[in-house]
Each structure stands twice: as C-alpha cells, then as structure tokens.
Amino acid sequence: xxxxxxxxxxxxxxxxxxxxxxxxxxxxxxxxxxxxxxxxxxxxxxxxxxxxxxxxxxxxxxxxxxxxxxxxxxxxxxxxxxxxxxxxxxxxxxxxxxxxxxxxxxxxxxxxxxxxxxxxxxxxxxxxxxxxxxxxxxxxxxxxxxxxxxxxxxxxxxxxxxxxxxxxxxxxxxxxxxxxxxxxxxxxxxxxxxxxxxxxxxxxxxxxxxxxxxxxxxxxxxxxxxxxxxxxxxxxxxxxxxxxxxxxxxxxxxxxxx
Length: 258
Ligand SMILES: [Zn+2]
Known about the structure:
Helix content is 40%, strand content 15%. It contains ten helices and ten strands. Strands 1, 2, 3, 8, 9 and 10 form a six-stranded parallel β-sheet that branches. The site of zinc ion has 6 residues, from loops.
C-alpha cells in the first residue's frame, strides 16, 4: 500500500488490457443515457475516510464504495459509523478479512509473513472472503456485494483465488472488461491530474474506477482539499458522468447484458 502498489495496479491493468475484448458491452449505455459511469472506491477501512471523505461525499450527495478490511483498527473501533455509512446509501465492499498480498514483489516489505498470499491456498482464501461477506451482510443487510482483491493480486500457492470467489460477487474490480474500463489509484495527486486522466479517456471507455485510500491522512493520501475539488468537478458534470456505488453500477451492467 505504498506508491509502488499504485504502480502495480497500473501495470496489472495495462496487462489485462490485452486479455479480453467485448465490443458488445462497449456499445451500451448506463441509466439516464450516461455514457460513462464513475465508481469512487475508498479501500482498507481507514479513519481518514470516515473523518474526511464521507462528509465530503454526503455534502454533495455522491455515493461511493468502501472496501472494508475487518482487521483494520478503524473498522473494529468504529463499527457503528460503518453501519451508518451503509444506511446512507454508500456501499460496504469486500476487501478480504486480512488484506493478504503477495510478498514476493518489489516494495512489499510491509506484507506480514503470516499474511502473505504466496503461502496461502485457494481454499483458505475462499473461506476468508466468505466470512468477510458474512461480516458485511451482518452490517448492511445486503446479500449482494462486490470485491476488490487486495493489491489486485490473484495467485496463491495452488492457483488463482479470485477466480474461485468471483461467483460470490455481483462485481470484482480488476475483472471488468478491460476494453471499456479505466482505473486510477490517486496518491499525492492533484484534482487536476485526476480530472485530466478522466477527460483523456478514449470513447470506448465507459467505466472509470477512481480508487482512493487515505483522504487527508493515513496512506496513499489525497489531500482533503484536492479530494473536495475533484468531487465538485463530478457534481458539476453530472450530465456526463453517472457516479454511483460499484454494486449499483455492476447491477446495471448485468441488466444491460440480459
Ligand atoms: Zn487495499
């Protein structure tokens, strides 16, 4: 969850760009004729998200997805606030129980040996993800959730765990159609840089994931001021962009495909 992680996200996304192509999906539109959906993510269950990101979203009537790690101190110490966040129409998403990532990658010194994906099995991860969904359902009452794989890693020692859990979800970030999806993970970026990324996307892009971590604190930080300016831009451009929870976006995608 350092700067290198963001680079890894981009690298992963660039590679997956070449793995699939679905022109049918790219031709379809979102509700109310919007051509582009924007999913705002806040990963890792951080104090700065409750303190700074959530009020900024609520002031502007924007809905977002918060990918929860139940192991996080900010989760266990502030359960009632996460529950309220879901009641306000935001999404509690699955980010696994313990945030296991591969340790055998550059910049991954922070991965604890007890929590390295390299040493886990597919079945262990299926169990972990299943329990994390139960935690979310006990808080928000929903049976349908979405998943962001921690660090966007997929492989464990005996296979691909994301493939094994994907049927539990209405959507998995990083498994979208790469021909029509873009992703940015801001860290120490200005609102102008994020907006530039969005505006330079080619016409085939119809889903943009903006994946925040800390807002005004914690790690991979976006300042409160730049975050607010970016949200103001989204509000000012609501005719262009459909901003909603990833669950709602993925449910709309599924009804598109019927
Ligand atoms: Zn994470």
